[in-house]
Here is the input.
Amino acid sequence: MNERTDWKSLRDRRLTEHGAEDAYEAARVAFELGKAVRELRESRNWTQVQLADAAGMTQPAVARFEAGGTVPTIPVLERLAHALGADLVVRLTPRTSAA
Here is the structure.
């Protein structure tokens, strides 16, 4: 007989699988980047079409990015930042150990 599983149990089990934690982190980063671009776009009262035109992209590409569906290259982030009148800042910071 099949057991039913709630989302938290399924998520916890899947995160123990090899490579899952890295994939989860990549999805988080993609989501955060998309959210930042969407918030800047909306603060300028721009549509996705307007941003796409200014950045030399297509509207579906902007929509996918804002939804966290893609992780862009640095040149794409630079084009989006330039189109939005923003500075792109990329930095690496050391992790703190949870002693």
